[in-house]
Amino acid sequence: MSTTRKIYNFILFTIGPVHIGSGQTYSQREYIYEDGYYYFPEMNRVYREIQNRGPKVVQTFEHFLMQNQRNNDPKQRLVNFLNDQQIRERGFGGYKIKESGFETEKRNRGKINEIGAFIKDSYGKPYIPGSSLKGAIRTLVLNQSEGDDASLTDIFSHIYVSDSLPIDPEKLILTRKWDYSGIKNEPKDLPVFREALQPFTAVKFTIQARNQEAIEVVDNLMTTANDEYKLYHDFFLSEFKDSYIQENISQFAPIYLGAGSGLWTKTKIKSVDLSKFRRGKYAMKRKGVFKLTKAARKEYMQNGKRKSLIKNSENFYEMGKAGFTCKAMEED
């Protein structure tokens, strides 16, 4: 009798920073940069503290909120408003992210206008929705499949991916977007900032496959991912400096996830007609730019040797790069 359902433990390991956006952004009026930390308070608790200070402070705060926001203007920052009103209280709930030193240049420390928020559950804990992981898995399989989209959609209707377990907010860092041009052969920083999971964060999911075709897809997922990475490397990564390309870790199959990982990690590469990308408002040169970000160097042991996750001295990581293991847990 054939197996009709299989359950898997899927563990994602971030190798570069990973951002799964909630659609929310924090302005400089909604976070406090102080003592080497970015503090994201519960704003309703901030409002209550302001109300406790009386109508004059409330009116001043309302004026503060009404001002046209300008980047890097100290008068626009929540921390300056609180200090001006001699509000020393900082127990407003929420969470803190420790400054890494790679968010901005030294002269602009703490001066970030908007920060893209990582998605969080109702308890304020970061997590990765099952739909985000399922979409990334589908891209892997799509690139290695001989079937059409319709047949793949049918197979994936029998694959169920849970939301991840909650993630400790201490695993969050702030990252800046960098685009690396293979033509100019240099990375360029952009004023786009995101909360992201730091490298070497483990995130746990459960996957269920509920018919034979779906089981075969998930059983072979790690092999599929390795084959897909070779295709992606030959098509895109090979055009850039090797020092910016992160090596895979042998025990994990490679996968890219989330915002900022680049077009070619979300596309069926075998079906690409590059001529379509040569014209129009968003036309790109060659195959576009390589998406990078900066974070602290991380090292690990492999076969008794100490290795680094990155090969460059500038602290560049591939945005969205991760690895995974997928192992059957039980069968019916």
Q: How would you describe this structure to a colleague?
A:
- There is one protein chain.
- The chain folds into two domains: 217 residues, no CATH class; 95 residues, no CATH class.
- Helices cover 23% and strands 29% of the residues.
- It has seven helices and 16 strands.
- Strand 8 and strand 9 form a beta hairpin.
- The longest helix has 15 residues.
- The chain is globular, with a radius of gyration of 22 Å.
- The N and C termini lie close together (11 Å).
What's the overall geometry? globular
Strand order of the largest sheet: 7-10-1-16-11
Biggest sheet, open or closed, and with what strands and sense? 5 strands, antiparallel
| Cα end-to-end separation | 11 Å
Indicate the proportion of strand residues: 25-35%
Radius of gyration: 22 Å
* Series of secondary-structure elements, N-terminal to C-terminal: EEEEHHHEEHHEEEEHHEEEEEE
What oligomeric state best describes the polypeptide chains here? Answer: single chain
Q: Which structural class fits the helix and strand makeup?
A: alpha+beta
Residue share in helix: 10-25%
Low-pLDDT stretches = none
How many domains, as an integer? Answer: 2
Total beta strands: 16
The total of helices stands at 7
- Mean pLDDT across the residues is 91
Function: This subunit might be involved in maturation of a crRNA intermediate to its mature form.
Family: Belongs to the CRISPR-associated Csm5 family.
Organism: Ligilactobacillus pabuli
Protein name: CRISPR system Cms protein Csm5
